[in-house]
Every structure is written in structure tokens, then in C-alpha cells.
């Protein structure tokens, strides 16, 4: 089945710097790759997603890139702010016959120091 | 509109007891998912209800775990004979359609502590 690896597990940056989180997946049939942000004690919330028919997607300070050949995708946050501090999870969809099932990475704890 | 809700928010139980966790998805969402999140860990898939199709139970860790869903509404996750390793936050999520991966909306979770 699908396996998703996420790195790094922790990341500390200075306010204003960029942060990059990387994920790899194992199933070449995966076609949907969301990123979720989970603040301490709160529920995960979608921040950006990408489908396999595009290579990059941007939304203000965040962007996601996808390399289908290498089976990896990355989250880029520019001009980081203290409120970006949270745990970020990547995910990949399962095979087509498993519908909307998502397999999540282990998470990256991002700390933005003022 | 109302988001995904879960109850109870916290549950403390003794080892060996059964527990039942409830999830109310967003109205009209046909897909519903249960995940387990141990402290400091990622989201572990448990089960997926997809409209009228048979549920995907491939993530249930043992036969002590079961889940039901009534039509396209409420779902309950039951853990029988609870063990200390069952202690975790159990998250429910729903999405608009089945059969296609898209945004999942999460509930606030139920924190289960087995003593």
C-alpha cells in the first residue's frame, strides 16, 4: 500500500526566513497531495493541495511543488511569521480503487522564532 | 454552516472497558473517515465510509475496533476491551464526495485515556 515519508520532523527558522518541508510517496497511482496545518490542541486544517496534473501551485506565501517522476512533493513557506508555528502534515491519496483515502506523513513541527 | 462535531471531547476509561465515540459529519458529505493520532505522531488511517459502498476497514488495528455509519450521517467508533495503547486522540473527518480524494474536514477529536 501507499507509504508517505516526511522530513524534517522538526524545523526552526527565524521570522522572515523561508521554510521547506519535503515528502515522498511510494504509489505512482496517487493523484492528490494535500498539506494540513495543525496548531497545538486544534484540528488539522487544509492549507493547500495539488493534483498530479500540475507541477506547482501557489497561494500567497505558501506553495507546493510536485515531482511525479521522483514521487516527491514539497511545501514552501516564504516570509515566515510566528503564527506559522504549528505541525504540518503532508498526505497522498491511495490507489484509485480506494477512493478518497489519504495516507499521512508523520508531521513536521515548525517553530518560527520572532 | 456547522462543521464536523465529535463527542465526547474527552474520555477516561479503565482498561478492559468498552468505549463508543461519536462523529457528526458536515451535512451532505458522503465520505467519512476515522483516524487515530497518538501523542506527537501523525494521523493513522482507521476506516473510511464511502456512500453506499462497503467501508474500507483496512486500517483497523485489531478486531477490538469496529465502526458503523447510519446512511450519510452519524458514525460511531467502538473500541472493546480497551488497552493502554489505545490512548490517543481519535479524529473524524468528512468530505463532500466519495470515490475521489479531496479536502477532508476534521472534527475536534476525542481524547481517549485508558488507565
Describe the protein.
The complex is a heterodimer of chains A (114) and B (115). The mean pLDDT of chain A is 93. In chain A, β6 (56-59) and β7 (62-67) form a beta hairpin. In chain A, strands 2, 4, 5, 9, 10 and 11 form a six-stranded mixed β-sheet that branches. The radius of gyration of chain A is 14 Å and the shape is globular. Chain A has 114 residues and is an all-beta fold. Chain A contains no helices and eleven strands. In chain B, strands 2, 4, 5, 8, 9 and 10 form a six-stranded mixed β-sheet that branches. Classes of the chains: A mainly beta (114), B mainly beta (115). The interface between A and B is medium-sized, with 25 and 27 residues.
The end-to-end span of chain B amounts to: 37 Å
The level of helicity of chain B is: under 10%
Helicity range of chain A: under 10%
| Overall spatial form of chain B | globular
N-to-C order of helices and strands of chain A:
EEEEEEEEEEE
**Residue runs with pLDDT of under 50 for 5 or more positions of chain A:** none
The SS-based structural class of chain B is mainly beta
Beta fraction of chain A: over 45%
- In N-to-C order, the SSE pattern of chain B is EEEEEEEEEE
Please give the oligomerization state of what you see.
Answer: heterodimer
| Share of residues in strands of chain B | over 45%
Count of helix runs of chain A: 0
Note the gap between the termini of chain A: 41 Å
Question: How large, in whole angstroms, is the Cα Rg of chain A?
Answer: 14 Å
Q: Unreliable segments of chain B (pLDDT under 50, ≥5 consecutive)?
A: none
Total E-strand runs of chain B:
10
Summarize the structure.
The complex is a heterodimer of chains A (114) and B (115). By secondary structure, chain A is mainly beta.
For this entry, give a set of tags.
heterodimer; A: 114 residues; mainly beta; six-stranded mixed beta sheet; five-stranded antiparallel beta sheet; 0% helix; B: 115 residues; globular
Amino acid at each position: 500500500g501507499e507509504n508517505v515519508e516526511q522530513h524534517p520532523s522538526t524545523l526552526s527558522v527565524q521570522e522572515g526566513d523561508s521554510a521547506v518541508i519535503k515528502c515522498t510517496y511510494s504509489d505512482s497511482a496517487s493523484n492528490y497531495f494535500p498539506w494540513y496545518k495543525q496548531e497545538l490542541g486544534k484540528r488539522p486544517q487544509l492549507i493547500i493541495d495539488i493534483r498530479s496534473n500540475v507541477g506547482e501551485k501557489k497561494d500567497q506565501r505558501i506553495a507546493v511543488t510536485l515531482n511525479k517522476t521522483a514521487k516527491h512533493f514539497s511545501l514552501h513557506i516564504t516570509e515566515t511569521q510566528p503564527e506559522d508555528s504549528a505541525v504540518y502534515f503532508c498526505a497522498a491519496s491511495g490507489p484509485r480503487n480506494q477512493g478518497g483515502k489519504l495516507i499521512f506523513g508523520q508531521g513536521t513541527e515548525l517553530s518560527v522564532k520572532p | 454552516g456547522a462543521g464536523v462535531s465529535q463527542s465526547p471531547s474527552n474520555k477516561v476509561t479503565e482498561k478492559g472497558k468498552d468505549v463508543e465515540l461519536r462523529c457528526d459529519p458536515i451535512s451532505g458529505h458522503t465520505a467519512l473517515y476515522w483516524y487515530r493520532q497518538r501523542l506527537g505522531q501523525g494521523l493513522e488511517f482507521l476506516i473510511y465510509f464511502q456512500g453506499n459502498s462497503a467501508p474500507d476497514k483496512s486500517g483497523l488495528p485489531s478486531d477490538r475496533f469496529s465502526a458503523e455509519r447510519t446512511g450519510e450521517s452519524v458514525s460511531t467508533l467502538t473500541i472493546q476491551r480497551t488497552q493502554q495503547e489505545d490512548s490517543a486522540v481519535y479524529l473524524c473527518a468528512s468530505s463532500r464526495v466519495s470515490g475521489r480524494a479531496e479536502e477532508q474536514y476534521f472534527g475536534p477529536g476525542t481524547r481517549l485515556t485508558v488507565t
